[in-house]
Structure to design on (283 residues):
């Protein structure tokens, strides 16, 4: 028997685990060491059962079949990715952007139209935090305009981000004045808020897999890229390859923000660290 079922819980056999983890690492960059097996089981069990299948071997045979490749295989990545995020996560980045970087960057480079990319945007808290930061900045600097692209590999989280609907507890880190300016409370459910339409419309959403050879984006076109708490799931060589690709999309002097536990130490990259986890492209 390939998988065992105990009290309705399906356990994943080692061969299926290796088949799945090899696929996920090759296609999406995400490392899946054996220690992640129980996490995978807890995320995939319901899916396997909902397809009427009795083992992970049957499940993998199905998702890698011609029929599976048309749909279910695509959905598996939605279940495997870790999408934890928050409004104003690692708030020092947004403070640095609005209080230190933007005024200097726009005047030194004579650039008033700032292009930003939230890469690995998850359910939208990061790009909407960028919107709030830029809108607040614009109050003092009306000459500045900006555009924002937000991408993720998971279509499920992109849909959530596009909707811009959140439980009210989620916006706790947002300062009160900004809550009033950027969110509307649902009339039907007072525990739910939605980002106001003009701010939702400011974001262009895209599905991008960082493992793809091309991201279908213009080179040297971005002033700022946020790619935070994504690369931590990749091995070092993949991280370096992906960051090099981000660099090719940055304008000289542009910024790359990484997550608090991500580092480029030991990598050969045209980046200069200017703050903890903040890098300037020296191209
Ligand atoms: C933990 S969330 C980080 C969200 C946000 N950047 C933050 O710091 O709060 C990581 C996101 O990276 C996305 N991701 C993982 N692998 C990816 C890949 N190969 N290409 C693009 N996005 C990926 C996941 O779907 C997930 O939404």
């Amino acid at each position: 028997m390939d998988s065992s079922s105990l009290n309705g819980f399906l356990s994943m056999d080692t061969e299926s685990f290796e088949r799945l983890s090899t696929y996920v690492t090759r296609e999406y960059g995400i490392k899946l060491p054996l220690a992640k097996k129980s996490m995978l089981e807890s995320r995939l069990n319901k899916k396997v059962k909902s397809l009427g299948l009795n083992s992970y071997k049957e499940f993998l045979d199905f998702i890698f079949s011609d029929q599976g490749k048309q749909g279910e295989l695509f959905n598996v990545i939605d279940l495997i990715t870790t999408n934890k995020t928050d409004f104003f996560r690692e708030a020092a980045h947004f403070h640095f952007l609005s209080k230190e970087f933007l005024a200097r960057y726009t005047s030194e480079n004579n650039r008033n139209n700032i292009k930003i990319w939230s890469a690995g945007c998850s359910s939208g808290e990061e790009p909407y935090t960028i919107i709030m930061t830029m809108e607040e900045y614009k109050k003092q600097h009306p000459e500045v305009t900006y555009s924002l692209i937000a991408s993720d590999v998971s279509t499920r989280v992109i849909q959530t981000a596009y909707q811009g609907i959140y439980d009210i507890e989620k916006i706790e880190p947002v300062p009160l004045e900004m809550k009033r300016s950027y969110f509307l409370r649902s009339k039907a459910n007072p525990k739910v808020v939605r980002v106001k339409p003009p701010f939702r419309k400011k974001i262009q959403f895209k599905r991008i897999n960082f493992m793809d050879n091309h991201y279908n984006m213009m080179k040297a076109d971005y002033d700022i890229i946020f790619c935070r708490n994504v690369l931590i799931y990749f091995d070092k060589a993949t991280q370096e390859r992906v960051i090099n690709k981000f660099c090719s999309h940055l304008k000289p002097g542009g910024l790359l923000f990484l997550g608090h536990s991500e580092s480029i130490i030991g990598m050969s990259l045209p980046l200069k660290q200017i703050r903890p986890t903040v890098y300037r492209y020296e191209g």
